[in-house]
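Title: Comparing notes on inverse folding

I've been comparing how different people in this forum approach sequence design from structure. To keep things fair, I'm posting one structure and asking everyone to reply with a full sequence. Here's the target:
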């Protein structure tokens, strides 16, 4: 099926300067969306101007910020545009994106924005399915399986607590969620792991709960510095394995982003049929 250049999907990510991780995560998500909706052209934007500038200077790679991407879509004659973020939650980055999209609302025939990854109860269940399937080989009762989220000052930070509660509710008792920049912290995580009901752990697996395995995953989680999660967990007495892979490397996560796009399309059809 040929693409209709008047209909596009703009996939918006925070971005990363780690080229290999960008290919395995952001590129992969965009490719899944493109394959799922072959009649749409898929475009890219990053929200981090720091990363955009770094890639341009270091690698001569040009990536639009959100406003540039919206302007380019208009210049190219796009009339119907779906903006799908790869953000985890409706935190500060997502709210800023939504505000920018709203500024352009009247300049497109149809302009919609999809939900972040963790929005509905079904989203939480599907993400839990994906991350537990990806780590099932470590769930031996002797290993604490720990996920590092980014964390935010926004109200949306509660998604981490909710995810922890949902994991426990589904009897994934060896799974833990904490954040780099908010609560629960690495200190909270070590306390949770040490006070596990029924005995302690010997090992710990660390994996990022982030779309891309970038700076936080490589340095704050798996780095050699004494304040990294790896070093702090080793200091606490655990044999540590780090899995430096983003959520975008999981096919089920990529499909969930595509499902969010589909929800927007179905909603548009319903509105037009009324």
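Reply #1:
Here's my take.
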């Amino acid at each position: 099926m040929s693409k209709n250049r008047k209909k596009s999907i703009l996939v918006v990510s925070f971005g990363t300067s780690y080229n290999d991780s960008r290919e395995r995560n952001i590129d992969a998500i965009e490719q899944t969306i493109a394959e799922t909706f072959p009649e749409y052209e898929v475009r890219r934007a990053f929200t981090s101007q720091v990363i955009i500038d770094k890639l341009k200077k270091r690698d001569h790679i040009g990536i639009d910020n959100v406003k540039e991407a919206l302007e380019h879509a208009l210049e190219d004659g796009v009339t119907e545009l779906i903006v799908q973020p790869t953000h985890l939650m409706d935190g500060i980055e997502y709210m800023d994106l939504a505000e920018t999209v709203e500024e352009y609302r009247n300049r497109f025939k149809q302009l919609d924005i999809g939900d972040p990854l963790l929005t509905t109860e079904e989203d939480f269940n599907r993400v839990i399915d994906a991350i537990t399937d990806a780590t099932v080989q470590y769930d031996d009762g002797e290993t604490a399986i720990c996920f590092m989220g980014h964390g935010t000052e926004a109200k949306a930070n509660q998604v981490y607590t909710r995810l922890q509660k949902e994991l426990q509710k589904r009897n994934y008792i060896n799974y833990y969620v904490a954040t780099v920049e908010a609560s629960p912290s690495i200190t909270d995580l070590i306390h949770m792991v040490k006070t596990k009901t029924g005995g302690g752990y010997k090992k710990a697996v660390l994996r990022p709960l982030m779309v891309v395995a970038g700076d936080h995953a490589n340095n704050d989680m798996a780095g050699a510095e004494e304040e990294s999660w790896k070093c702090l967990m080793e200091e606490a007495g655990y044999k540590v394995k780090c899995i430096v892979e983003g959520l975008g490397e999981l096919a089920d996560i990529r499909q969930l982003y595509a499902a969010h796009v589909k929800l927007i399309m179905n909603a548009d059809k319903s509105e037009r049929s009324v």
